[in-house]
């Protein structure tokens, strides 16, 4: 066990509790402690404030699940690609999910989360295969730089296709634009119930493949010598990452940078062992997304600023710093 694991786990647990509390209290309407307790523990309370608390409970749970899913997805993608800045948004996976969703809205007249989720997962999976295939071409195979460039180019092309489909269809644009920004405000108990099986399967795959992914980090030759089927492990782990990312994207929209931030911070603190990175990334992702949601509600009061915008403002500068640090190390 890493030396700092217990300390970091305790810190993240405390931060998670504070974020949950802030998510229940802060928003367009401030909630007093009395109203908070009434909304949580007295189901017969029918005041407006108590009803607001109950709505925020659902939103907070949905936010925690999405953050955990995106955090673990980032950890898996970074391990499979051996790229420290891999993330669903950077590799174009989110954009692939978006393209399939907008095609479903435009050509199949879909409108429910149950339909979104399968299209988004299919789009994310096909995009991930395409990006990895393009990044694997040429000498040296799938290097981190080639994967990022392939992801950026793919994301740009798919974004253009999304715009091309939306522009001549006003009804599609109105329905898609609110989803595209990335928001956890639409979460409800039905959405959570739909999400739980996908996140459960994705987390199972993540924990199941963690020891083999640790071996892969030593190199394919060493991993093969240890009895690891490298190709199979990569496919299964990538499937888990895409499943988590696709489900979260379908229900909350393409929220970027959570996987990058959560996993990178955890890796710096607890080391490279995925058996510890995966649960810590889940906690860290939940903390980051819930905190971003609270910030968005406070900045946009009396309305709200969608969480996808907040995570982009937080994540983009950190990505630049990570890239600069990697460049300096390379020099």
Automatic annotation (TrEMBL):
Would the keyword Transmembrane helix turn up in this protein's UniProt record? yes
Which keywords appear in this protein's UniProt record, sorted alphabetically? Cell membrane, Membrane, Transmembrane, Transmembrane helix, Transport
The record ties this protein, via SUPFAM superfamilies, to: ABC transporter involved in vitamin B12 uptake, BtuC
Q: GO: which molecular function terms?
A: transmembrane transporter activity
Mind listing the GO biological process terms from this record?
A: siderophore-iron import into cell
Q: How does it sit in the membrane?
A: Multi-pass membrane protein
Query: Where does it sit, as one GO cellular component term?
Result: plasma membrane
Signal sequence coordinates:
none
Q: Which Gene3D superfamilies match?
A: ABC transporter involved in vitamin B12 uptake, BtuC
Protein's cellular compartments? Cell membrane
Has keyword rRNA-binding?
no
Q: Where are the transmembrane segments?
A: 57-77, 89-110, 116-135, 147-167, 194-216, 236-262, 274-295, 307-326
Q: Which InterPro entries match?
A: ABC_BtuC-like, ABC_transptr_permease_BtuC
The domain of life for this entry's organism is Bacteria
Its family remark reads: Belongs to the binding-protein-dependent transport system permease family. FecCD subfamily.
Q: What is this protein called?
A: Putative siderophore transport system permease protein yfiZ
Q: What is the source species?
A: Solibacillus isronensis B3W22
Gene, per the UniProt record: yfiZ_1
């Amino acid at each position: 066990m890493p030396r700092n694991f217990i300390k970091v786990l305790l810190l993240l647990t405390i931060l998670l509790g504070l974020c949950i509390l802030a998510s229940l209290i802060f928003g367009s309407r401030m909630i007093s402690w009395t109203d908070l307790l009434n909304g949580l523990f007295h189901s017969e309370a029918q005041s407006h404030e108590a009803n607001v608390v109950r709505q925020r409970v659902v939103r907070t749970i949905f936010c925690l699940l999405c953050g955990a899913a995106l955090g673990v997805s980032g950890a898996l993608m970074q391990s499979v690609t051996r790229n420290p800045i891999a993330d669903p948004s950077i590799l174009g996976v989110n954009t692939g999910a978006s393209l399939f969703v907008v095609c479903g809205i435009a050509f199949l007249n879909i409108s429910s989360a149950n339909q979104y989720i399968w299209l988004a997962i299919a789009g994310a999976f096909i995009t991930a295969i395409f990006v990895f295939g393009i990044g694997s071409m040429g000498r040296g195979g799938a290097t981190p730089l080639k994967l990022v460039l392939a992801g950026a180019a793919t994301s740009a092309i798919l974004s253009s296709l999304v715009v091309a489909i939306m522009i001549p269809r006003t009804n599609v644009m109105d329905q898609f634009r609110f989803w595209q920004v990335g928001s956890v405000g639409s979460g409800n108990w039905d959405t959570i119930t739909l999400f739980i099986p996908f996140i459960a399967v994705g987390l199972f795959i993540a924990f199941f493949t963690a020891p083999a992914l640790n071996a892969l980090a030593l190199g394919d030759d060493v991993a093969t010598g240890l009895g690891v089927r490298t190709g199979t492990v990569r496919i299964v782990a990538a499937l888990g990452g895409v499943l988590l990312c696709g489900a979260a994207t379908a229900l909350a929209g393409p929220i970027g940078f959570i996987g990058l931030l959560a996993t990178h911070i955890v890796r710096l603190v607890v080391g490279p062992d995925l058996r510890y990175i995966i649960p810590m990334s889940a906690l860290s992702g939940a903390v980051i997304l819930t905190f971003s949601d609270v910030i968005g509600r406070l900045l946009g009061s009396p309305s709200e600023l969608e969480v996808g915008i907040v995570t982009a403002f937080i994540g983009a500068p950190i990505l630049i710093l990570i890239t600069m640090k990697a460049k300096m190390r390379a020099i």
